[in-house]
Amino acid sequence: MEATLFYILATMLVVFAILTVTAANPVRSAVFLISALLSMAGFFFLLEAEFVGAVQILVYVGGIMVLFLFVIMLVSVREVEGQRRANRQWKTALVLGIVLSFELVFFVVQGAEVFSADTIDQQFLNLDSQTGNTETVGGLLYSTYLLPFEIASVLLLVAMIAAVVLTQKRL
Amino acid sequence: MVDVTHYLVLSTIVFSIGVVGVLTRRNVIIILMSIELMLNSVNLNLVAFSDRLQDPSGQVFAVFVITVAAAEAAVGLGIIIALFRNKETVNVDEIDLMRG
Predict the structure, then answer these.
(1) Among residues B85, B89, B88, which one has the least CA distance to residue A168?
(2) Which residue from A3, A83, A171 is facing B2, i.e. has the nearest CB?
(3) pTM of the model
(4) Residue A110 forms part of a structural domain
């Protein structure tokens, strides 16, 4: 059951990711990216990380991608269809990307036994199964990771001010 | 039970697709979307190991990565709008202000 879901979602994710990168029209590219992000949220639900999956759908699909679509509407509506979509270095880049992919897959497969079930130290297995996922993540966020959480809020404030300043009429 | 290696290989493939997108496309908006794809593949790694080690810290870091991605998208899209207002293009190979 889990394996079947994994392979269905993996196929969807890879296909939508390739379509995102190759689509001629930026609007289509954004819609394919939304589909890819939704498949990714499916993986998070499959991995019992319900909170991250919900945040993925709310923040990524509901926030960031709508922002992308707005900017595409503002910026590049006219005659994107006829233009070249790849730059001059695309052949070299494609070869390098495939080489990078094989390299990373090779090292992951080489190190596969490190991640297998019996080699992982049992002291890591400290998840309290009494509480729900959101409660566990929230508890960690407000205790162990309180300082990073505050820094993230400052980062969001800085990004907000930067976006307002950058889009002013006279820059 | 799907092995964690499957998730690692999958996120590697998605990351490489993102890298190819950044390196080959001319439209700067699609380049930004490829970067989002790469950030998301890292999230898949974090959550997969969080499930494997039964340690929710990985999920907390995935939430932080999503936060940084949101900030990055806001600033990047602001830069794109400012650039389009000044140069009337979104193609990266036509933006050569720094070329000597």
Answers:
(1) B85
(2) A3
(3) 0.89
(4) no
Out of A49, A94, A159, name the one closest to residue B24 (CB): A94
Q: Between A113 and A56, name the one with better pLDDT.
A: A56
Query: Does residue A123 lie in a domain region?
Result: no
CATH number for the domain including A149? 1.20.120.1200
Which bin fits B54, alpha (ψ -120 to 50), beta or left (φ > 0)?
A: left
Question: How many domains does chain A contain in total?
Answer: 1
A140/B51 touch (CB, cutoff 8 Å), yes or no = no
Residue A103 domain-assigned (yes or no): no
Question: Whole domain around residue A54: which residue ranges?
Answer: 2-85+132-167
Q: Which residues of B touch A126 (CB under 8 A)?
A: 54-55
pLDDT per residue over A19-42, tens digit each? 999 988 889 999 999 999 999 999
pLDDT of B20-67, one tens digit each? 999 998 888 999 999 999 999 999 999 998 888 888 888 999 999 999
Nearest residue of B to residue A71, measured between CA atoms: B77
Contact A155 B71 (CB under 8 A): yes
Check residue A78 and give its pLDDT.
61
User: Measured between alpha carbons, how far is A130 from A8 in angstroms, rounded to an integer?
Assistant: 31
Q: Which of B68, B14, B28 is nearest to A68 (CA)?
A: B28
Instruction: Please check whether residue A124 lies inside any domain of the structure.
Output: no
